Amino acid sequence: MRLILLGPPGAGKGTQAKLLVDHYDIPQLSTGDMLREAVAEETEVGLKAKAVMESGKLVSDDIVNAIVSDRLDKDDCANGFILDGYPRTLEQADSLGSMLEKKSMPLDCVVELEVDDDALVERVSGRFTCAKCGEGYHDKFKMPANPEKCDRCGSQEFKRRPDDNAETMRVRLQAYYKETAPLVGYYYAKHLLRRVDGMGEIGTVQEHVRDVLDKTRK
Ligand code: AMP
User: Fold this and answer.
1) Which residues contact 46 (CB under 8 A, 6 or more apart)?
2) Given the CA of residue 30, which atom of ligand 1 is nearest to it?
3) How remote is the CA of residue 53 from the centroid of ligand 1, in Å?
4) pLDDT tens per residue across span 131-179
5) Overall pTM > 0.70
6) What's the gap in Å between 30 CA and the centre of ligand 1?
């Protein structure tokens, strides 16, 4: 199963991708995570990307295309992958198309998660993750059972993304509507687009996403 999760920041792509990883046993390829790792490790890419990411704008196509191409060559992508946060521009979508053709890895499906703008801001401004295992939480929708401890690994350290604030979110949404939303038409024309209502609870959205994917596999 090779798929793209498409949708604005806060639509739930990362959350849904993590659940799909467990279910289909394929990796989540999040360019946001890869770039945050590069920033933390202060690599050449990280140093170039840091300020752009903090402003909410998009990192250059060349940088992300190269990261994804390398990642797709790893063994764990042989049975499929979930692209989360990539492609984000028409240029990236074209590059991905050429990459996948060369690697003989055709896409099965592009799932668009549809969520209202007001909900996006609320979701993004309340989210945080366990600093140790990466489990995702939310001030309003998903607190750990003991607010001071991660449900999954017991760590007491949590972190919030510096770009998850209302002001940067506005820039990220603008980037989405200007640069990424045209991909909906792009993949629709290729008969790959499936739309899923992303407004429900995490488990309900996951069921709908799996329904769509299971139909695609048949
Ligand atoms: P995300 O975790 O997907 O919300 O991404 C966080 C930030 O990383 C974005 O606001 C961009 O600055 C950068 N980023 C992630 N993926 C891409 C991409 N495919 N193209 C350009 N910039 C990206």
Assistant:
1) 35, 37, 38, 39, 40
2) 3
3) 7
4) 999 899 999 989 999 999 999 999 999 999 989 988 899 899 999 999 9
5) yes
6) 9
